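Progress note, sequence design subtask.
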């Protein structure tokens, strides 16, 4: 039998919630538009196209003419529109109701706006668990694309990967195509004839084969160096010319056409998995390094081709343990989803709930919940966008459930799924989340009026790729390399900027340092911790007044082996945009002064701009937020972000030293290794000596002012320690 085969080209175009408008536009000009321009004249070629919800909404607003052209190609069966969850969440991190809801919401949008109800969907990041099948089918989807890596992990070999398969969960049957990793690495990085030759070899071994390519559309122009390669140098035209030339035996078909024309190869149950690189990124750093070493050691083994199908990395959900910040976003999202479900059961206004649901769904966009070859969780604007939508949803839920907006609330439960109780203080201005069992830290502080979490910070931690930073940039002679292979520095001396934090970058972190500790040693993470307060449990009490609440936390610990007791309290008053932070140290030795510091971190306030700056309590500017400050005998500091319209001020009731410095990470992105400003750390510090009773205290009033807010918190309004 003469060789013949079908090729499914599945493009996934995506920009995340919170990405900059200029990035959307650049990707449109570099990838989406030129691809369509080249594709349109090839009348016999067909593709399946997935455009994520955030990008689709942007296109509908900014470039409706593009969607008009796509709609015309849909009408003549040249483009099949592929659906999926509306805002590109990792489905395995969502409750079942949100999985189904996201998919149905986007299918309805596509039918309204493009006149087509999708039967297939894109699986975000190809993260798969068997329980997804039933929810996907219940949402109205019949087929999807994963990687051949998933199928090899289930025991299939290359000869069995030339069609699609059926899988089942709870009696629902879903069709799954195995996307070819080989094609992911040849398209568009190798000459077009190499892809044709590969397809011919498969067709000769398996006449009637279905080969599936499923990958990012951004690799056709947006990924580094691909615009010139794909368009200026003519790679895409040469590829389409080759497909046209060999169309007598190699037909391009959509996923839907493949399902209609060919029966499934069989039935299979796939293990929990993602694409190969993702399973590696999900591993803890030490395990990831060991995994790399093992793979490199075995690659030359005579049986490596037989072994590699059984060698894979970790499990996507463990990003929630690899990065505490991922778990914080996830737990916050789950809390909003739970509250929304309760509001629906209570019969709240359906119109308002639909708005809240859209904010929740936007807050589930996957990109900042993990990290690999792209910036992901290391990109502050993406984390800020997630919290912005979750905070807005949470605030609207308070309103729709007729909560007393002028009241102040205090609740305690295990909000972040760590088996320990956290405390939530909230009014109509602020929402503060504290973890008494983790050093009594303040780990989230929401400014509700602008939907901003001041503690959407990121800890500086080792990454497996930091060894590449230490080794320096590569000299790759290839014209175009995959983003997985490039080593490019976007700034100089990044190897000198690698610093690591022993603890998360949160607030109310209580430190005891050596007397000789300096701004430099603290900023670079080199200062020795001499106490046991920063991460160990505090006993907790909630105290309530008529219009205020206070969480009071107390720990009997030690510093330099000396028994010390710290009691700290956070007070919130109804209607106020201020927190009062009160500290009392007891049992201080009369013969020794102790170097005590309170760490606070503030996110969303970037460096390198004149409209983001420090000022003293008299209003004098002290420099941009990327400045390092070493202040003495001062009683306050303000941080301003004019773009957000926000000021955060600290007023201290005794003369203090203050260290302030930017927290910056070295991370990898598709464009190379880069330095990213994550937050500003402010540490008031003192050499404390007890009074006659061995006591020392300080009060810090933190004000978060947006626009014309001017509420004050008088000393009479405070619940005293």
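Output:
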């Amino acid at each position: 039998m003469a060789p013949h085969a079908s090729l499914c080209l599945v493009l996934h175009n995506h920009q995340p919630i919170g990405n900059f408008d200029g990035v959307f536009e650049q990707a449109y000009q570099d990838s989406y538009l030129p691809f369509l321009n080249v594709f349109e004249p090839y009348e016999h070629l067909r593709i399946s196209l997935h455009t994520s919800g955030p990008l689709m909404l942007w296109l509908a607003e900014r470039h409706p003419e593009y969607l008009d052209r796509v709609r015309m190609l849909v009408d003549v069966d040249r483009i099949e529109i592929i659906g999926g969850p509306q805002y590109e969440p990792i489905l395995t991190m969502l409750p079942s109701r949100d999985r189904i809801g996201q998919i149905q919401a986007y299918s309805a949008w596509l039918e309204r706006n493009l006149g087509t109800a999708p039967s297939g969907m894109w699986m975000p990041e190809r993260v798969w668990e068997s329980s997804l099948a039933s929810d996907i089918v219940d949402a109205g989807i019949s087929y999807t694309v994963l990687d051949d890596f998933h199928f090899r992990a289930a025991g299939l070999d290359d000869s069995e990967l030339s069609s699609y398969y059926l899988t089942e969960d709870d009696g629902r049957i879903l069709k799954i195509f195995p996307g070819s990793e080989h094609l992911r690495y040849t398209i568009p990085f190798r000459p077009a004839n190499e892809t044709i030759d590969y397809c011919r070899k498969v067709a000769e071994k398996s006449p009637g084969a279905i080969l599936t390519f499923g990958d990012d559309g951004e690799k056709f122009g947006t990924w580094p160096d691909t615009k010139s390669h794909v368009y200026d140098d003519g790679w895409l035209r040469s590829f389409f010319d080759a497909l046209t030339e060999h169309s007598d035996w190699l037909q391009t078909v959509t996923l839907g056409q493949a399902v209609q024309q060919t029966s499934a190869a069989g039935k299979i149950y796939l293990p929990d998995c993602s694409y190969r690189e993702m399973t590696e990124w999900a591993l803890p750093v030490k395990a990831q390094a060991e995994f790399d070493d093992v793979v490199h050691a075995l690659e030359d083994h005579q049986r490596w081709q037989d072994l590699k199908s059984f060698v894979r990395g970790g499990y996507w959900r463990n990003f929630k343990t690899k990065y505490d910040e991922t778990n914080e976003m996830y737990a916050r999202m789950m809390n909003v989803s739970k509250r929304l479900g309760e509001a629906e059961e209570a019969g709240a206004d359906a119109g308002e709930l639909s708005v809240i649901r859209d904010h929740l769904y936007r807050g589930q966009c996957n990109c900042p919940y993990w990290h690999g070859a792209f910036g992901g969780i290391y990109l502050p604007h993406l984390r800020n966008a997630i919290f912005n939508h979750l905070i807005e949803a949470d605030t609207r839920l308070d309103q729709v459930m007729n909560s007393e907006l002028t009241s102040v609330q205090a609740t305690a439960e295990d909000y972040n799924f760590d088996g320990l109780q956290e405390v939530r203080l909230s009014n109509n201005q602020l929402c503060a989340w504290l973890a008494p069992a983790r050093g009594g830290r303040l780990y989230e502080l929401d400014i509700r009026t602008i939907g901003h979490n001041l503690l959407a910070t990121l800890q500086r931690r080792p990454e497996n790729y930091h060894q590449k930073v230490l080794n320096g940039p590569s000299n790759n002679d290839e014209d175009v390399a995959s983003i997985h292979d490039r080593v490019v520095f976007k700034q100089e001396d990044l190897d000198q900027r690698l610093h690591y934090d022993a603890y998360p970058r949160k607030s109310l972190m209580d430190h005891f340092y050596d007397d000789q500790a300096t701004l430099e040693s603290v900023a670079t993470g080199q200062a020795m911790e001499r106490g046991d307060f920063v991460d160990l449990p505090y006993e907790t009490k909630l105290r309530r007044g008529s219009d205020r609440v206070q969480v009071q936390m107390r720990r009997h610990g030690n510093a330099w082996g000396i028994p010390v007791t710290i009691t700290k309290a956070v007070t919130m008053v109804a209607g106020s945009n201020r927190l009062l932070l009160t500290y009392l140290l007891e049992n201080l030795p009369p013969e020794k002064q102790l170097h005590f510091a309170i760490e606070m971190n503030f996110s969303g306030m970037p460096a390198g701009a004149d409209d983001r700056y420090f000022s003293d309590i008299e209003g004098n500017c002290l420099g941009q937020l990327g400045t390092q400050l070493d202040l003495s005998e001062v009683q306050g500091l303000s941080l301003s972000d004019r773009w957000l319209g926000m000021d955060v001020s600290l007023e201290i009731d005794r003369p203090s030293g203050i260290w302030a410095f930017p927290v910056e990470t070295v991370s990898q992105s598709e464009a190379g290794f880069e330095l990213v400003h994550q937050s500003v750390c402010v540490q008031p510090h003192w050499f404390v000596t007890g009074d006659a009773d061995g006591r020392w205290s300080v009060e810090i009033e933190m004000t978060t002012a947006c626009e014309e807010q001017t509420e004050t918190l008088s000393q009479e309004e405070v619940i005293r320690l």
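The domain at 404-461+476-481+484-717 is CATH 2.70.98.10 (Beta-galactosidase; Chain A, domain 5). Work on this subtask will continue into the next period as scheduled.
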